[in-house]
Amino acid sequence: MSKPVLILHGPNLNLLGTRQPEIYGSTTLAEVEAMCRRRAEKRGLTIAFHQSNSETEIVEWIQGGINGAAGIIINPAAFTHTSVAILDALNMVKAPIIELHISNPHKREGFRHHSYVTYAATALICGLGVNGYPIAVEAMADMLAAKPA
Ligand code: DQA
User: Fold this and answer.
1) So what's the architecture of 5-146 in CATH?
2) Where do the structural domains in the chain lie, given as residue ranges?
3) Which residues are the active-site residues?
4) Ligand 1 within 6 A of 19 CB?
5) 6-26 pLDDT, tens per residue?
6) Which atom of ligand 1 is the closest one to the Cα of 76?
7) Among 75, 115, 124, 133, which is best to mutate for testing ligand 1, by the most ligand atoms less than 8 A from CB?
């Protein structure tokens, strides 16, 4: 069986749909998962979709992806701006990594302009709202098709 694409979400994204809808919209995380699954199925990918408020858990999923994932799509949320531990874990991953943000952090407060994760990311998608997720799945499928494992 082919390896899954990990789709990882950091803190507070469990509350998508009700969390600051003026910034993040009103789509829930369960709806985002359904969008990703539909797109992945069309492109013949399997996905493993996770969210955690804990940095430890996210590091452990990434470690599992070192040999176990075809690629990683990650919205690290606030850990984007703080976590060397997540960067260090991503630096061990040879598979493509897409960093994704629902909002455009560069239009927001200065502390959101720096991302540790960008140092490890193959590509960055931001500012497209939750539509960025199926676009990321599509881009991941294209990258994997261009460069089979
Ligand atoms: C976010 C942007 C981050 O700055 C913020 O801390 C989040 C969500 C986004 O998806 O736009 O929690 O990653």
Assistant:
1) 3-Layer(aba) Sandwich (3.40)
2) 5-146
3) 24, 101
4) no
5) 999 999 999 999 999 999 999
6) 13
7) 75
**Continuous segment of H or E residues that includes residue 83:** none
Distance CA 39, CA 134 (A): 6
What tokens were used for 57? 């858990």
* 58 Cβ below 6 A of ligand 1: no
CB 59 within 8 A of CB 86: yes
| Tokens describing residue 139 | 């881009």
> Interior CA angle at 113 toward 111 and 115, to 5°?
95
pTM above 0.90, yes or no: yes
> Span 126-139, mean pLDDT?
98
pLDDT digits (tens, 9 = 90+) for 104-124: 999 999 999 999 999 999 999
